[in-house]
Every structure is written in C-alpha cells, then in structure tokens.
Amino acid sequence: MASDGGAAKAAPPTGSSGIGFENVTVAYRGNAVLRDLTLAVEPGEILAIIGPSGSGKTTALRAVAGFVRPTEGRIRIGKRDVTDLPPHARDLGMVVQNYALFPHMRIEENVAFGLRARRAPEETVRERVKECLRMVGMSAFMGRYPRELSGGQQQRIAIARALAIRPIVLLLDEPLSALDAQIRRNMLEELGQLHRALPELTVLYVTHDQTEALTLADRIAIMRDGRLVAHGPSRELYRSPPNRFTAEFLGRANLLPVRMESLGEGGGHARVRFGESPLLAQAKVQLQPGTSCLLCIRPHDLTLERRGMNGNVIDARVVSTLWQGDQLSIAVDAAGTMLRLASHPLVEPPRVGDSLHLYFGPEAATLIAEDVR
Amino acid sequence: MSVSAAGSKPGAASPFDLRAFWIAAPLLVLAGCFFYPLSLIIGQAFRDDAGAFSLATMAAVFGSTMFHEAILHTIAIALGASAGCLALGFVLAFVVSFVPFPGASLLVRLIDTVIALPTFLVALAFTFLYGSAGILNMSLMAAFNLHLPPVDFLYSAWGVILAEVTVYTPFVMRPLLAAFSLIETAQIEVAASLGAGFWRILRQIILPAALPALLAGGSLCLLLTVNEFGIVLFIGAKGVITLPLMIYDKAIQEFDYGTACVIALVNILISVGLYFLYRFTIGRVGGNRAGLV
After folding, report:
1. Contact B194 A117 (CB under 8 A)
2. Model confidence at A10: pLDDT above 50
3. Domain containing residue B81
4. Does A76 score more than 80 pLDDT?
5. Min Cα separation A88/chain B (Å)
6. Cross-chain residue pair A114–B208, CB shorter than 8 Å
7. Interchain CB distance below 8 Å, B194 and A165
8. Structural domains in chain A?
C-alpha cells in the first residue's frame, strides 16, 4: 500500500541482494541533504526514487554506492552492513547520466574494466564481455571507441559494463536524461526487457522523470527536501497518492477543495461536498466530518459522458482546448477551480465558454488531507 | 558594380592581390630577425678564419672531449630536470585537482608566478638557502658544531637540476591542471564502483587522460632545460659545462666565434629535433584532439 514517508519504517531486506536504508542522514558541512531515510528495496525489484532537484534522491544513491558516508544511520546490501565499506567492495554496478565511459578504451576494454579490476581470468573476461554486449545488442561495436557511438549506444555500453561484474545491485542515476525522447522510450523498453532477463537483479533507479519511474519501477519512493514523502507500489501510488506533493509530482492531478461529510462504513466510499455538488470518493486517510480536504482526480479519469460507474458529476465551463495529437487536453473552470481533462480526440470538441458536465467514478477520486504539503 | 566583381571570380588569384603583401611583410620581419642571423651562424660554422668553406672547425669541435662532456651534461641535466618537473608537477596538479583543500587556487596562482620570474632569481635564492654560507648549512653547522658546510649539492649537476625543477615545474602543471579538469568525476566513481582501487584508477583512468598534457609539458621542459643558460651560469657548478655555457665561453671569453657557431648549430639541431619529436609524439597520442598540436 502507498504510504506517507513519515510512516515509512521498513525492515531491512531479507534476501541476498536487497538494499536497506536505516535512518540514513547525510549532511555536508552540517547541512542535511538527506534526512532520516528508512526504506527497503526488496531483492529483484526495481525501486525508483523520484523528486525535484535538491530533493536528496541522488545523495541516497551515492550513499549506497559509497561515494558519500552517512552522518547517521546504516546502509545494508543484502545482509551486509556496507556503511563503512569502500565503493569497490560493495558488489554493485552503476550507470550515470553522462555514461562515464572511459574515452581512451575501446568498447570491449570498457566492458572488461570491472572484471580486470577484480582480476578475473582472461577467458572469463572474454566470455563475459561477449555475453554482456550481446545482451545489450552491441556485439558489433566491440572494437570501437566511445566517441564513435551515439548517446543511446554509449548508454547501452555503460549498462553492459555495469552488468559484466554480475553485480547484486544495479544503481541507475538518471540514466536516460541525456537522451532524446524517442531513444529514451526505446531504452526504457530495453531496460524493462533486461530486468526480465535478470529477475534476481535489484535495481535502484533515480530519476526526476515520473514517466520513467511509472513505466519501469515496481515501487516508487518520492523525495522532497531531503525527506521521503511517500513510497509504495507504482500503480497504487499513482491511483491513491497519500499527500498533495505526491499527487502533483507523480503525474498530473486535479485537486478539488472539498468538505468531508461522512466516512464510508464497512469499506464504503466517503461522502464529500464540492460547492453544492455531493460526491463520493475513496478515503485512505483518516479525516473528521466537517474538515476541509482535497479530492485528487487524474485528468484521464474525468469524462464528458456518463459511464457505468461514473457516479459523480460536477459542472464546469471550458477555458481552453489543446489538441495534442493522440489526445485532447481541455482546461475547465469548476466553481473557481481550474481542472484539466484528457480526452481522446473528439469530432466536435467543446468550444471555449461552453458549459458542460464532468463525470468521474468514486474509485478514481482519492481524498487527501489539505494541510499536508 | 565593383572592379573585382566584374573582372574576377571570387577567390581567384590576382596579380594585384593584397594578400601577398600580408604574407610578405611578416616573412620579411622573420627573415631579418631570425633566418638571417641563423644563416650567419650556420655560415660561420662552415668557414675557416680566412672565410673559406672548411669543415676543420667542425671536426675539431666534434673531436673535443669538452664538447662531448658538454653534450652529456646538457642531455643528462635536461632529462633529469624534465623528469623531476613531470613527477613534481603531476603530484602537485593531482593534489590540487583531486584532493580539495582550502587555498588550492591560491597555491596554483603562487606557482604560476614562478613562470614570471627570471630563472637566475631561483638560482640566487638557492645560494641563500643551500649555498656554503646559506641558511641550511649555517644552521646545521651551528646545530652540530661542524667546521665545514655539510650540504654541498648546490655546486654540482644536482643543484642545477633542482633549480631547473623549481623553475620549470609550473610549465608541466598548467597543461596538467587543464587536463585534470576535463576528467569527469563520474568516470572515477564508476571505476571505483566496478572494483578499481586507487592505483588502478590512477594508472588506467587518470594517466591516459593526462598523457597529452604530460607530453606537452615534459617536451616544453626538455626544450627549455636544453637551452637553459642563466641557472647554470649563476650556480657555477664545478665541472658542469652545458652547450649554452660552452657557446658563451667560446664566443664571449675566448672570441672563438667559429667554434661557438658550430656548438650553437648542434644546440639548434637538438632543439629542433626535440620539437619535431614532441609534435610527432603528441600527434600519436591524441594531442590533436586535446588541442595541443
């Protein structure tokens, strides 16, 4: 279940390749950039840490890699406490945004670097280099230099180099940020395929791109100002964000100011009121009747026609429409609150100033306490 | 319509082309200030006292033991000083670039100022520090009740090498600092995460990246130390005669211009040879990409 960062007290992973942060704080010259992080990455899962710049996500990854030492707390990889181990003793692979390939080495030497550093027999080195290059579809480029490859190809080599040492943990630090949109989409698919081929590999994926996180990760952790503000399975975190920051950072969200009327009993929906409109919604946070709160509805969950389960309806006026190829983005004003609706392209789209009804189901609406920000 | 547009195609040569003037003017200056004096030296090297063509002076110089010793001293001191500059320059540049400490940039500026100083000033400072009546010797003599100065390396080839290392190390540091600034920290971090320790990272990541800069700085040091005159003269090391010092002796003290010109010709050939070796080596190791050639 998706949960607030404040309640995220996870046990260290039990498998041999999970990652455990236990109350980890990192400070530079007394200024904490990561505060009391407790989080577990289960063996074999992909956990994405997302957050805006300066949120502490890269610091968390660098703490696992051993490039920054926590001022407080412990870090575990599997059952080992690695807090005091140097980077080269942690058995992990790392891929960074700008690839960091060694420019004076050929591709095969780049991929073989970690194996040779670990004094693997030459025969093993040759076999493993071939295997890893085949895995990322770059066998034909063994003899080239990094400068002779495109950005996407270089990133594949960086992944092959990280995998060649057969790490128990793979750290990916914004690995697709330097690529253009089309290559990034392809690489996302390839990373997914790669993980399906290596299901035992634990992956910690740091990104500021929520699409990458939602596409690839089993679970997502959201950071803000050095703190974990939410974490949970990707779909659940998206469908039922536990707080306003998560709702707004993980995908686009419409936030309606509503007043709580009654909590659903026996698993039923909560009743809320938006202006004069009574609405039903999911309530995963404890709210007292009469309190003000926010109702989170994703743009694609708002429809212009009533459908089977769309019990809720609100009135709105069209402010603008924006054709985006495969979808139509409509901005509306609902009793002074701006909402955005993502519709499939319509033959006759509404015009600016038109009044219309917006429908959505109670399952698509999640209540969030208003004061959490 | 302009005359040039009507009469000629763009880029076509014209008898009145002003470009020829812009090339000829600097060529004339170069010829007057460099090639003509050089030709006089070369000409003098191949003439006897009567002005006729002769290889006698050259044969006498090449057969002289003093000349052989001067060549050996010149090469040994140049190689020793260049090696010292490379080692010291690499360590200093490495520390300044990769081991952050307060005042690093100030240190770089201070080292840079050494480039601006006349070379003999360092030799003078060394006599105050390490000379027979220098601070070090006087302190040691007072401390251990000695009658003779215990440290006397200054008036040997080692003194010249130490002074040249002090003067010319910044010439190695400058390109090295530029090269180190281009090494991505991420490369070092990834190498460490893959299992590489300090020495492997130094050997396989940092050194290859620094190689063009090391070659550039080292070659420059070699060129400068082969031709170094002020330090050798000022220190006055016993029995340490180098080619520039020998030229000075022959031309100024003995008025033997023919011999001086033959030695100067050899000195020029060594310098030009070193320069072409530098260009060739830099080209082979990727100096073109580093903008060093």
Report:
1. yes
2. no
3. 71-284
4. yes
5. 4
6. no
7. yes
8. 3-244 (3.40.50.300), 252-369 (2.40.50.100)
